[in-house]
Design goal:
With 146 residues, chain A is mostly helical. Chain A is built from seven helices and three strands. Chain A has a domain of 79 residues: Arc Repressor Mutant, subunit A. The first copy, chain A, starts with 6 loop residues before the first helix and ends with a helix. Chain A binds a DNA duplex (23 and 23 nucleotides) through helix 4.
Chain lengths: 146, 146
DNA sequence: TATTGTTATACTCTATAACTATA
DNA sequence: TATAGTTATAGAGTATAACAATA
């Protein structure tokens, strides 16, 4: 038995199909909360109970630091997060979710973590096989970094 | 042997890790061509040699039809596509890639189709296993649609 | 009457550059 | 001097509503 085509290429192509569905879902979810997709992503990037400098959020969001000012302004006006002073460096502002922010984040994160029908409908054995190969894939990345 | 956690949920979480890397790659590629991510996505959505109504592109892009006017304006000004009259319905405008558009699209599509190191670094057996499970997953979708 | 694409409007995201206040 | 965050600016994406041409 042989492959008519590169299996890695086909696998990547198929994953892209699933990715498109996720994009739509994220847009719908953001709209439900009255947030833009980027605002929802920002909320999701903050860990409840932890503080993150604005510069770190800019890296996570893959955008310039100047954009974060506006994004954070709007989320702060909505009462979902707050700016706090950093103890050791008065230039730095630390971001932290408010109680309302934590609630929204937990709910949204939970809903986005639910696998789509394409994955949920697989047999348990196929789900485990998929998980195992993906663990391998991500492990490759960590090996390379070291 | 048992699972400490839902395998579908963990698989979905791991796929999300790979998606994040793809987002960065798409942004970098668009910037190389001097296009916005959305403009590159629009170019990639048009099949060389085929025509697509603007309304269809709006559906593919997951945005309102009014946005497509501006996106297409900018791509047309760059000489990457053109508007054509539809024979049967004079309200409709058909979009078609120019020669330059086809060249750019083919090159960008080819580069985006290259699997990331996480997938390329898997053993051939793992790549096939991943492909087979993803074929199953997408087949689920088609079964449901019928 | 309904539909396709456009325009007008208002808001958000985006990068660049200049600025403030710290370090 | 260098860095964290802001502001100013200009361009692009976004939805809504109103519109023209056509069906």
């Amino acid at each position: 038995m042989y492959d008519s085509k590169d299996p890695a290429g086909e696998a990547w192509e198929l994953m892209f199909e699933l990715f498109k569905g996720m994009k739509r879902e994220r847009m719908n979810l953001a709209q439900e909360y009255g947030l833009s997709p980027m605002q929802l992503f920002a909320i999701g990037s903050l860990e409840p109970g932890e503080e993150m400098p604005m510069s770190s959020l800019a890296e996570t969001l893959l955008c310039d630091a100047s954009n974060v000012t506006g994004i954070v302004d709007r989320l702060e006006a909505r009462g979902l997060l707050e700016r706090r002073a950093a103890a050791h460096d008065r230039r730095v502002k630390l971001l932290a979710l408010t109680e309302a922010g934590v609630r929204l984040r937990d709910e949204a994160t939970h809903r986005l973590a639910i696998p789509p029908p394409e994955i949920a409908g697989l047999s348990r054995a196929d789900q485990r096989a998929l998980r195992d190969v993906l663990r391998q894939a991500i492990a490759q990345r960590e090996m390379k970094a070291a």
